[in-house]
TrEMBL record:
CDD domains: OAT_like. May also have succinyldiaminopimelate aminotransferase activity, thus carrying out the corresponding step in lysine biosynthesis. Pyridoxal 5'-phosphate binds at G127, T128, F156, D241, E242, V243, Q244, T298. Binds 1 pyridoxal phosphate per subunit. One of its GO terms (biological process) is L-arginine biosynthetic process. GO terms for cellular component: cytoplasm. Keywords: Amino-acid biosynthesis, Aminotransferase, Arginine biosynthesis, Cytoplasm, Pyridoxal phosphate, Transferase. Its EC number is 2.6.1.11. GO terms for molecular function: identical protein binding; N2-acetyl-L-ornithine:2-oxoglutarate 5-aminotransferase activity; pyridoxal phosphate binding. Belongs to the class-III pyridoxal-phosphate-dependent aminotransferase family. ArgD subfamily. This is Acetylornithine aminotransferase.
Length: 418
């Protein structure tokens, strides 16, 4: 694998003097950016394909992809040219108007989701906004006694107030209570628990087909199909949150492929880094729940974002990219599972969770950075990989080769510390 280690000269006029060192930038960061993210791990200045470079010129193999966002890696020529051409033609217009890329992307998403006639799309700028739209859709299915909404234990659906009401983690929720009411959480992947919880008082059930933030938890086979039958029988909407798992991440267009929900949210991978999300509603009845004037957005679905989405879907659909996601994912999981200190490996396609024998995941993330790899910890003993879908097996092998030393270094810095 050859990685040029000198960043190329930028092709566009610089608005920022980017010559500072990483530590100089971080000092300015802490003086000007809100502290909600803690201290950023590195200051990144450039990306190309699966590699990014920091302000000090060091390259990293990006195995997180901006948290399952950079489906085509960094600076993919198709996305760059689609966004550039669209910005040169027509950038933003508001939803008082529409544009060809918006309509074409909606049509393409409906086709890929195998949505029946009468299905529709609402575009947003993020995953949490797509969930907000789905939450409002669920409230519109709330008639008479049907007032409750179910989500899953350990679910993550975003950080705005409605999405937060669906998100399970107490540390995220409690500082912001009271949250929108009526949401209860049930055990994930447990058909009988779901069956017992869903009755005529439930307006909607929100399910991640694979729980990403919870550490890549894959439900038992048949779970999504059972959820489909249980919600249909009770008249509750079934909402699949495919924000992290959709758009080829798990080796199929959607992780729920084969089971049609009433609504589905997408975001992360859809724009290859350009912010865009969407709510897809299945069939005319559900698609009519949000009436004219009942929801809206200024930026959502603008021509640039939807052009980025079209470029992304076109690239993922071409050649053998999706087959490669499965092959490379399998290769990574098999290789990582053999590394000493790894207790189990989960996931599908290129969404991978790695359980460690010791609670050294945060230290492993730091050691991986030192070794030139970007990875992520979802818990004290769990790592997550969500690399670009274009990752090669050679790149995967370079991480497998480096992981034993990364885990040793992490154990050395963690063990014995308070
Ligand atoms: C990331 C994520 C969200 C929130 O998306 P944002 O773009 O961060 O607002 C919602 N649901 C799932 C499953 C996610 O992984």
């Amino acid at each position: 694998m050859s990685i040029p280690n000198v960043p190329a000269a930028p092709a566009v006029p610089q608005l920022v003097d980017a010559s500072g060192t990483g530590s100089e930038w971080l000092a300015r960061y802490s003086d000007s950016l809100m502290g909600v993210f803690g201290t950023p791990q590195r200051v990144l200045v450039r990306g190309e394909s699966c590699t990014v470079w920091d302000a000090d010129g060091k390259p990293y193999l990006d195995l997180l992809g901006g948290i399952a966002v950079n489906a085509l890696g960094h600076a993919h020529p198709s996305v760059v040219s689609a966004v550039t051409a669209q910005l040169n033609t027509l950038g933003h217009i508001s939803n008082f108007f529409t544009s060809p890329p918006q309509i074409a992307l909606a049509e393409k998403l409906l086709e890929l989701a195998q949505a029946p006639a009468g299905s529709k799309v609402f575009f947003t700028n993020s995953g949490t906004e797509a969930i907000e739209a789905a939450f409002k859709l669920a409230r519109r299915n709330s008639t008479g006694e049907r007032t409750r909404i179910l989500a899953m234990d350990h679910a993550f659906h975003g950080r705005t107030m409605g999405a937060l009401a669906l998100t399970a983690k107490p540390a995220y929720r409690e500082p912001f209570e009271p949250l929108p009411s009526g949401v209860a959480h049930v055990p994930y992947g447990d058909v009988e628990a779901l069956r017992a919880a869903v009755d005529g008082t439930v307006a909607a059930v929100f399910i991640e087909p694979i729980q990403g933030e919870a550490g890549v938890q894959v439900p038992p086979a048949g779970y999504l199909q059972a959820a489909r039958e249980i919600t249909r029988d009770a008249g509750a909407l079934l909402v699949f949150d495919e924000v992290q798992t959709g758009i080829g991440r798990t080796g199929t267009w959607f992780a729920s492929e084969g089971v049609l929900p009433d609504a589905m949210t997408v975001a992360k991978g859809l724009g290859s880094g350009f912010p865009i999300g969407g709510l897809i509603t299945f069939g005319p009845e559900v698609s009519g729940l949000l009436a004219p004037g009942q929801h809206g957005t200024t930026f959502g679905g603008n021509p640039i974002a939807t052009a980025a989405g079209l470029a992304t879907l076109t690239e993922i659909g071409s050649g053998n990219l999706l087959a490669g996601v499965n092959t490379t994912g399998e290769y990574l999981r098999t290789g990582v599972a053999k590394v000493p200190g790894v207790s189990s490996v989960r996931g599908r396609g290129l969404l991978i969770g790695i359980d460690l024998e010791q609670e050294i995941a945060p230290a492993a993330v730091a050691a991986a950075l030192d070794a030139g790899f970007i990875i992520n910890a979802t818990g004290p003993a769990t790592l997550r990989l969500a690399p670009p879908l274009i990752l090669t097996t050679d790149q995967a092998q370079s991480f497998i080769d480096a992981l034993p030393a990364i885990l040793q270094a992490a154990a050395a810095t963690t063990i014995g510390q308070p």
